[in-house]
Amino acid sequence: MDYDVIILGGGIVGCAVSYELSKYNLNIALIEKDYDIADDVALINSSIVYDGLECEDTLLAKLELMGNRLMPGLASKFNICFKKKGYLLVANSEKSEEKLIRIYDRALKRGIKNIYLLNSSDIHEIEPGLNENARKAIYSKNTGIISPYDLAISYGEIAFDNGVNFKLGEEVLDIQNISKGFKVITNKNKFTCNMVLNTTPGENYSIDSENRVNKDRKYLKYFLVGKNTERDYKNIISMVEEDDEKIYTMPTRKNGLLIGIKNGEKISYEKALQKIRCFIKDIPEENIEEFYESLFYNDSLIIDDSLIDKGYIKVAGKHYGQITMTPVIANIVCETIVNNLNCVLKKDFVDRRREFYRFRDLSNEDRKNIIKLNKNYGRVICYCEKITEGEIIDAIRRPLGARTIEGIKRRTGAALGNCKGSQCLCKIASILSREINKDMIYIVKDSKNSNIITGRIKEFDEM
Ligand SMILES: Cc1cc2nc3c(=O)[nH]c(=O)nc-3n(C[C@H](O)[C@H](O)[C@H](O)COP(=O)(O)OP(=O)(O)OC[C@H]3O[C@@H](n4cnc5c(N)ncnc54)[C@H](O)[C@@H]3O)c2cc1C
């Protein structure tokens, strides 16, 4: 057998399971079709860590609550930013007030602590920027925000350092049952293994049986509002869902505001903004820095181990709270795999990320000391976010280092400031080209064929 376990998909779930399994004496490979891990994890650098309060499905709510409890410990171990932020679930009408009370009773039955019912005046004391029609709310002190990229990349880096073989840019075409184990066929190779964990959305592999996921997908529009909002919203705020429509906001890690509007049908930019303004005051259009469209996923997420006797597990479905659930999903899947294979914990497992510096967060004294050791940290490349050449080089040279422009942006925060990279993207591309020893025309934004330079204008030897 080439491997004990092959993990398909390098999203946050695949990376988290690879981290958990790398604690054991197993030969593991992870296959990802993109050039980097966690490419689809989020639109921006902040995701909500839920606590099971808002989730319709009881089992998924339990996974959220368990994940919520694990997240602060993981963030501190991986040295990544996790900010506690309250969650305000607001009812604006009589109908939604009744629903809110049902949600509150359900949360108490689920054993969720630190939640409070607030009336209108309490709500405005906590969030003065909310419109007057906020009648009642549930306030939870359990929730927070985390960077989904940092979490996924931390999992991946530690797994890589502990021997997991990451095969990036390789697409799985089929998984076939063989007499003992599986054959995983990719566009480049054929591998055999004892067990397969499939975290990709692919449903048509030879091994797959009927699809049991109930898909519930709606339209989502996101507005990213810059730091300078006139109101300072401190909490994650969501309105109780009515007629398939829900608006929610969260403060981002960079003190901006992300506002999402979920709707059963596709609505225009203007209509979305008009609806948001009925919920949240003072969102001047000039403060909107970015606008995204996506799907809102509320599938019946399942860990399908119906073929576990053969050695196949599939994590199927997409859910808006999946980042919160990931640490728990990883523990469950790891336990199932370990129970099926004859393996023991490794003695030399290193549960730590290699050190890195975030220059913008350091004192001048620390900065000076680091620059003395490595002068690349003395050259600022991204002025908006204050990211140095040293940080960009480190992002490329680290375990499982960046090989794309997006990979560098996500690992360092470069080019994510106000100028959106107009001042630094070329410099970043030329550092990447130099570091990986590839001509600029081969440097890609993220996926295959996303080259940032399509060709030379003129070859010198033609002149
Ligand atoms: C806009 C948005 C906002 C979100 N906000 C939150 C939030 O605030 N809080 C929260 O808890 N969750 C949030 N989520 C949910 C969460 O980000 C996702 O559900 C989660 O990232 C899914 O991770 P995954 O690993 O299961 O799947 P994916 O990220 O989809 O990973 C699957 C991987 O498999 C790879 N792949 C696919 N096909 C193949 C193939 N044939 N061969 C090899 N590789 C393949 C893909 O390239 C991908 O990298 C949000 C999701 C979205 C889209």
TrEMBL record:
This is NAD(P)/FAD-dependent oxidoreductase. Residues 380-433 form the BFD-like [2Fe-2S]-binding domain. It comes from Clostridium moutaii. The lineage of its organism: Bacteria, Bacillati, Bacillota, Clostridia, Eubacteriales. CDD domains: GlpA-like_Fer2_BFD-like. PANTHER family: GLYCEROL 3-PHOSPHATE OXIDASE, GLYCEROL-3-PHOSPHATE DEHYDROGENASE. Residues 4-335 form the FAD dependent oxidoreductase domain. It comes from the Bacteria. Coiled coil: none annotated.
